[in-house]
Write a structure and sequence with these properties.
By secondary structure, the chain is α/β, with parallel strands linked by helices. The chain contains five helices and six strands. Strands 1, 2, 3, 4, 5 and 6 form a six-stranded parallel beta sheet that branches. The termini are far apart.
Length: 157
């Protein structure tokens, strides 16, 4: 059913966990794994002045993203066919959907970071992908630590 899986990663500490889940899924079904990251230049960084050499910020961000993803890929199990990483400049949800279409993937794996502040109004990247994608989407949530219920609640004495 799933022959090509795209895992979309960001620069968060949770990226390794999302990659691990995607790798386990790819291994379980024998799928090829594509790894992608969208990079965006924060609006507070002004573009390079006209007439100056090209601003190296985007190239530096792309190199850092490739390095991060290459480290994750190197740790992938040998029996998972991981394709070379893909880094693109753009709006994250749009980049992810474009890569998914270009590679004709069967499944997109993405992490969820929950709603905070403006996300309630603007929506998260994961929410946009889930709502717009024309393919299956698997959302990896952060696991909450187990809460013991021992000693709480009402007793039946």
């Amino acid at each position: 059913m799933f022959q090509r899986i795209l895992v979309a990663l960001d620069a968060s500490v949770r990226a390794a966990g999302v990659f691990k889940v995607a790798g386990e899924l790819a291994r379980a079904v024998g799928a090829r794994l594509y790894v992608a990251r969208a990079i965006t230049v924060p609006p507070e960084f002004p573009p390079a002045a006209a007439g100056c050499p090209a601003d190296p910020l985007v190239a530096r961000m792309a190199a850092n993203a490739m390095q991060d993803m290459s480290r994750l890929i190197a740790a992938a199990p040998d029996d998972v066919a991981v394709q070379p990483p893909i880094v693109r400049l753009g709006v994250p949800w749009r980049v992810i959907l474009d890569v998914a279409d270009e590679r004709d993937v069967d499944l997109i794996v993405i992490g969820s970071h929950g709603y905070h502040g403006w996300d309630h109004i603007l929506g998260t990247t994961a929410a946009k992908i889930v709502n717009i994608a024309r393919r299956h989407v698997f959302v990896v949530h952060e696991r909450e630590p187990a809460v013991s219920t021992e000693g709480r609640g009402s007793s039946s004495e």
